[in-house]
Every structure is written in structure tokens, then in C-alpha cells.
């Protein structure tokens, strides 16, 4: 199925089930209790376990992933559920040392204390040392913020041969830009706070897998641990998912247009973007990604130059996170990421590209 067909079908998924007079937009169900006479079962029973507004949004996510999906109140909520559902005391977990730092923090501060051995490797050369003895291998590709790639087909196959499971964080690409489950991953996690939500007003995440038993474990974890999303937040994501294909396409097209111009600017020493022909990730990106994404990594001379660039550009919001309709930028070293002091993660938005470039260029010229 093409991305265009998938996007068109998503817009009409709910409509195919409607009766005359039903609302086209899903209602927000605000309920912690349900009418439940007699023996429970077969109907919603309690709001921590069942919620119609979640289910409407999960229906859209499942369509995008072509796999059952479960909703969580944040990306880290989804990651935590996937890891707690697949790990036990005595297991070994492999994570990237240059990926999203909260995954490493979860491992260091909580999983290690429960008897899980956490091993870190850089994204570049992730397969070096092999995967024997790892119960779970957590993959982030492209890496955040460095934009290095991991060969998903080769890595997922190698992990499976070694007896482990792969959990792939697909936040930077969304199901429209990369399809880890089709490339061999066991589980996909994502922060829908980013491009799927897209309006910087909602925290959300999801887990998807074609392994029914594993998904039942994730569902049980959500119910027992209580890491559940609110119905209004689920409704907001449902609304946003219906325009994801438009926003994502515009963001990626803008990034494709801007990356070579940014790479050529004298204020920038290095520019990382998989769409650039000389980028180390270019060939692999062409093989496993449908698009090159909307994130660009820029290295300026130093911390002061990076901060001046961000603060002086009227079309950049200095903010953490990414994937909004507005372009944003962040000097990632301020969070302790292993990047140069002048490294900037640029998240390209949906602004008309020429005014956006003019603003970026003027800010860079002033550095």
C-alpha cells in the first residue's frame, strides 16, 4: 500500500463505521466508570483499562503501523512499557549511547536496580561485538540528535538469530517515513508528541507490534502500572493524525530544500542530513527510509554562535523537542548530549520555504 493510499484511507476509517446521524469526529468520552451490572466481561468496565477515545486513536495508529498499537501518555511512557514488558531480572539490554538520553537514564536509575544489565554502544558501529546474550536490543535510527543510521534489516535479523527482541524508536521518522516492522523489528515505539501531534500542545506516545502475546504484555503493563493517556489528549492526537501526511510532507520537503543551502553557509562547519549526497547516512537512508526526514544537524563555531543563531532568527523557536508545524532549534549539548558545544538540532516546520530560508540565512550571517 502506498503512503498516499494509507493517508487517504486513514481519513475515512471512522467514516466507514458510522450510522446516519453519527458525528464524523469521534466524541470525547469522559468516564472512569461504566454501567456494569452482573458478571463483568465483554463491555468496558473501568477507565484505567478501557477508554473509547483511546481506542479511536489506536485505530488510526494501527492503520499507519499495519499492526496493533497501544496509546500512552508520552513517548517515554511507551518506551517504559515496551521495556518493562520484555525484560526481567538477569536479562541484558543494549541501548545506543548517543540516542535519546532518557532511555539511558531509565536504564541506569531503574532497570539496573531491578537486575537488568544495561550495555551502551554508539549508533555508528552498533553491531560491533554482536548481539549474543542480549534479551532486548533498543534501536534508534536516525539517532537523536546525531542523525546516524542503523541498518534495520541486517541488525534485526542478527538480533533474532541471537535469540533477542528488537525495539525500534521511530520517533524521528513516523510510520510515513520509515517502517521498522516491515524491516524486521519486533516492536516499534514512538513519541507522538512530535510530528504526529505536531502542534506542540500534547504529550502522547504509542507501542506497536505484530506479536500478539507481546502486545498483551504491554496492555497488561499499562493497566496495572496506570500509565494511561487522558481522553482529551487522545482526541487531540486523533485530530492531528488526520493531517500528518500533509504536515510531514511539507516539513521533509522544506528540509530537503534547506539542507544544501545550510551546508554551504560559511558559519556552519558541518551539516548532517541524510538527504545530502555526501552524508555518511545517505546510502542507507535511501534503502530503508521513504524520505530523509525533517531534522538537520548543524555545527557552528561554539556555544555563543549557536545560541546567537537560534535567538536572532524570528522563524525559529528556541525549544526542546521537535516535530512542530513551526521550525525550532536547540543546542543539544546543554542537556549533556555527546555533541560539540555549537551543535544545533534544527527541526524544520511547515513555513513557506523561501521566507524561512531568508530568516535562517540572515541569522547565520549575523553569527
In short:
With 367 residues, the protein is α/β, with parallel strands linked by helices.
Tell me what you see in this structure.
The N and C termini lie far apart (46 Å). Strand 2, helix 4 and strand 3 form a beta-alpha-beta unit. Helix 2 packs parallel to helix 8 and helix 3 crosses helix 7 (212-225). Strands 1-7-6-5-4-2-3 form a seven-stranded mixed sheet. The protein folds into two domains: 3-241, Aspartate Aminotransferase, domain 2, CATH 3.40.640; 244-365, Aspartate Aminotransferase, domain 1, CATH 3.90.1150. It is 37% helix and 14% strand. The chain has twelve helices and twelve strands. The chain has 367 residues and is α/β, with parallel strands linked by helices.
List keywords for this structure.
five-stranded mixed sheet; 367 residues; Aspartate Aminotransferase, domain 2; 2 domains; 12 helices; alpha/beta; Aspartate Aminotransferase, domain 1; seven-stranded mixed sheet; 37% helix
Amino acid at each position: 500500500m502506498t503512503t498516499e493510499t494509507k493517508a487517504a484511507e486513514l481519513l475515512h476509517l471512522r467514516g466507514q463505521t458510522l450510522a446516519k446521524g453519527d458525528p464524523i469526529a469521534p466524541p470525547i468520552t469522559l468516564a472512569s466508570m461504566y454501567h456494569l451490572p452482573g458478571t463483568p466481561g465483554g463491555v468496558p468496565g473501568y477507565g484505567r483499562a478501557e477508554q473509547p477515545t483511546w481506542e479511536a486513536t489506536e485505530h488510526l495508529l494501527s492503520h499507519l503501523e499495519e499492526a496493533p498499537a497501544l496509546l500512552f501518555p508520552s513517548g517515554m511512557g511507551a518506551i517504559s512499557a515496551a521495556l518493562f514488558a520484555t525484560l526481567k531480572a538477569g536479562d541484558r539490554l543494549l541501548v545506543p549511547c548517543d540516542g535519546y538520553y532518557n532511555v539511558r537514564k531509565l536504564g541506569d536509575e531503574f532497570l539496573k536496580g531491578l537486575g537488568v544489565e544495561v550495555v551502551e554502544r554508539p549508533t555508528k558501529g552498533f553491531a560491533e561485538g554482536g548481539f549474543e546474550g542480549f534479551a532486548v536490543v533498543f534501536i534508534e535510527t536516525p539517532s537523536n540528535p546525531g542523525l546516524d543510521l542503523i541498518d534495520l534489516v541486517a541488525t534485526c535479523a542478527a538480533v533474532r538469530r541471537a535469540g533477542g527482541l528488537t525495539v525500534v524508536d521511530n520517533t524521528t521518522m513516523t510510520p510515513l517515513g520509515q517502517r521498522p516492522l516491515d524491516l524486521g523489528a519486533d516492536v516499534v515505539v514512538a513519541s507522538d508528541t512530535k510530528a504526529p501531534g505536531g502542534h506542540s500542545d500534547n504529550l502522547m506516545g504509542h507501542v506497536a507490534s505484530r506479536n500478539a502475546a507481546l502486545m498483551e504484555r504491554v496492555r497488561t503493563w499499562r493497566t496495572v502500572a496506570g500509565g494511561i493517556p487522558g481522553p482529551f489528549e487522545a482526541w487531540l492526537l486523533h485530530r492531528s493524525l488526520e493531517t500528518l501526511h500533509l504536515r510531514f510532507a511539507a516539513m521533509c520537503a522544506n528540509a530537503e530544500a534547506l539542507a544544501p543551502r545550510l551546508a554551504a553557509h560559511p558559519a556552519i562547519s558541518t551539516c548532517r542530513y541524510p538527504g545530502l549526497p555526501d552524508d555518511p547516512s545517505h546510502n542507507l537512508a535511501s534503502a530503508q527510509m521513504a524520505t530523509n526526514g525533517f531534522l538537520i544537524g548543524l555545527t557552528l563555531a561554539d556555544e555563543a554562535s549557536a545560541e546567537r543563531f537560534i535567538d536572532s532568527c524570528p522563524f525559529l523557536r528556541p525549544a526542546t523537542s521537535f516535530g512542530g508545524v513551526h521550525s525550532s532549534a536547540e543546542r543539544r549539548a546543554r542537556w549533556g548530549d555527546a555533541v560539540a558545544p555549537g551543535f544545533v538540532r534544527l527541526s524544520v516546520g511547515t513555513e513557506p520555504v523561501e521566507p524561512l530560508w531568508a530568516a535562517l540565512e540572515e541569522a547565520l550571517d549575523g553569527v
